[in-house]
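Protocol step 6 of 9: fold each sequence in the batch and record its structure tokens directly after the sequence line. For illustration, a two-sequence batch is reproduced in full.

Sequence one:
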Amino acid sequence: MTDDTDSRRRADLQAVMTAHAAFYQAFIDRNFGAMTAAWAARLPVACIHPGWGALVGHEAVMTSWRAILANPNAPAVTVDLVDLAVLGDIARVIAYERINDAVLIATNLLAREDGAWKLIHHQSGPTPPPTEYASPVPPHRLN
């Protein structure tokens, strides 16, 4: 790998981690404006919340987040980043979400839109608590 390619790869990884953290920070802060900003505006988007069917399209996804974030009884979430991969203009992030006593596994896809990394897909569902991580990279607590 050339120095330029390696530098670009590191910059992409950092930018994806920052965008991913902004998504969860919007969730934690119950900030609908920040949540909207975390998602792609023009690229196709989809979301599958735990126990929900697939939501496809920007309007359906944002309507779901508006309801979740407006719920005063919505639980707090902490996130452990497990694995991150950048493949050109697409990135895949796997993370454990801890909500109350539940552990969920999430897959988040991000894509470059107008030069910025934005969510295009989020899916989260129950999983047993991790005993060890599959990735050789240790988990990274986002919050």
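Sequence two, same batch, same settings:
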Amino acid sequence: MTADTNNELTHHLGVAIGSIVVAVLLWGVGYRGQRVVAAVPFFILFFVMIIGPLVRIRPSIRRRFSGNVPVNWRSELGIWFAIWSVVHVLFVFWARDWDVIGYLVDMSPWAFGASVAVLIAIVLAFTSNNRAYDYLGPKAWKWHQSHGTYVIFWLVAVHGYDRAYLRPYEEMGFPSDDPLHLLYLAMIVVVVVLHVAAFAAVVSEYRKTGEYPPDL
């Protein structure tokens, strides 16, 4: 699985248009403002997280398409995750009348984790290009991007779990029954299952051939 940092304009347009379509659909079913701009980056992150394990589990996916598809979409997806995440943060500050200091002082641990995730996403977005790839080198760049993405996912997953389960349980005595919250939890489970399956596939190949996949 090779890295791709070309940042194709067509890919950026595709992700931008796709994310706007998702936002419009969420708005159409009744979600508003902050809920929409929180959901869109979560969906984008979901796709970022499943591309790798899907390709690892089913290598035939890449053979069906030319140009390193779908791996070569991850850079653009990651950049737009960062963009939408920043928009979400701005909506949060706007909802609190731009009392940024007050929000930072009173934020929950889960919100703090999500804020750290946004900062990491911004760093990854600014280094998701050929210039950073050449400067850091393939190994360091891949380590930086992959580890940063995993940290982001788990911080955002805990934040989503807080919104879908912990906070509603504290306030009402039972988890949220909001379909969007349930979808968040389902996507977290899917990501975990796929990554475990991909790890098992790598170990299985090693046990059979004595070697790891060359692009690992």
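Proceed to step 7 once all outputs are recorded. Observation for sequence two: The radius of gyration is 18 Å.
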